[in-house]
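Tip: read the tokens left to right.
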């Protein structure tokens, strides 16, 4: 079922065009990952959807409820910290805005701040503020959640629990629209990937579709050789070199390994895996001359 329609959205700041004719249909019970370089316009698009800033033209339509504030939950990129307000007070206050909020206890459990109920918001760590922001986003038991860089500042346990909770929410019928630069986290969880590039949605599909378009496999190894030594091999789609660590995207692992045979003495730690969202996105930028 379609829950949200984004129709012909354009946005400019002054003369700078940020979004150009964005059209999307967002289906319920799915996790949609919006990815793109710094400054691509991800937060701008979310802000427009949520009516926080005006679009230059185009329309946003929430289809299941005209009172869209009752069905949306939002976790913005920056934590909002109110002075002289405790965890307990902000959870109670936020619940009071909604017709059918989750219970106080549920929200406190989601925030993981059971032992900090009477602490001031200003006394929370960055990771604790993030988890509180997540609980507040869920206060109204929303149908659709917007999460802008949700896991920044969370430790690995908190991240793990966070994504498990997101998966549970999806399975319970929620729609989750998320941006993150932690691509390996998104890769495991998102059903649909939107790549925002050059002001438009340059790719819209699954990770499987992205792999078949941009390269299926990733061959990694360490070598003192130069990038130029490998660049002209027939089965190389792209090469990324960090220090002495090579990452090569290919559609034909067997042929590439055959081509690498003459170099094997100068190669260590050879590994073959499925191409990752991270490496595909690097390649994507290069292909599109960004
Ligand atoms: N209020 C504003 N006035 C002028 N320019 C703005 C304003 N807000 C954002 N921009 C510009 O719009 C572009 C897109 O910004 P946006 O924050 O949407 O990018 P983003 O994809 O979310 O980036 P990041 O991954 O770094 O968070 C940037 O070039 C930014 O400088």
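Filled-in amino acids:
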């Amino acid at each position: 079922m379609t829950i949200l329609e984004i129709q012909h959205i354009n946005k400019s700041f002054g003369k700078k065009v940020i979004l150009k004719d964005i059209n999307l249909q967002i289906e319920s019970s799915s996790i949609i990952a919006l990815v793109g370089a710094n400054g691509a316009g991800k937060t701008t698009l979310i802000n427009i959807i949520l009516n926080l800033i005006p679009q230059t033209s185009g329309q946003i339509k929430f289809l299941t409820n005209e009172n869209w504030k009752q069905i949306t939950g939002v976790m913005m990129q920056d934590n909002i910290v109110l002075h002289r307000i405790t965890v307990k007070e902000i959870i109670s206050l936020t619940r009071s805005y909604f017709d059918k909020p989750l219970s106080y206890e549920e929200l406190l459990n989601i925030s993981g701040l059971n032992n900090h109920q009477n602490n001031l918001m200003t006394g929370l760590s960055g990771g604790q503020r993030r988890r509180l922001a997540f609980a507040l986003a869920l206060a109204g038991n929303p149908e659709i959640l917007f999460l802008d860089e949700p896991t920044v500042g969370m430790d690995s346990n908190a991240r793990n629990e966070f994504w498990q909770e997101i998966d549970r929410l999806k399975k319970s019928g929620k729609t989750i629209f998320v941006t993150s630069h932690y691509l390996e986290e998104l890769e495991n969880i998102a059903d649909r990937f939107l790549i925002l590039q050059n002001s438009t949605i340059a790719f819209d599909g699954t990770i499987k579709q992205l792999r078949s378009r941009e390269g299926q496999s990733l061959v990694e190894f360490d070598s003192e050789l130069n990038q130029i030594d490998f660049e002209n091999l027939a089965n190389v789609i792209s090469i990324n070199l960090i220090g002495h660590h090579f990452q090569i995207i290919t559609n034909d692992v067997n042929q590439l390994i055959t081509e690498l045979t003459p170099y094997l003495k100068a190669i260590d730690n050879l590994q073959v895996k499925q191409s990752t969202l991270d490496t595909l996105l690097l390649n994507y930028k290069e292909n599109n001359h960004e």
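The chain is about 30% helix and 30% strand. The first strand starts at residue 2 and ends at 13.
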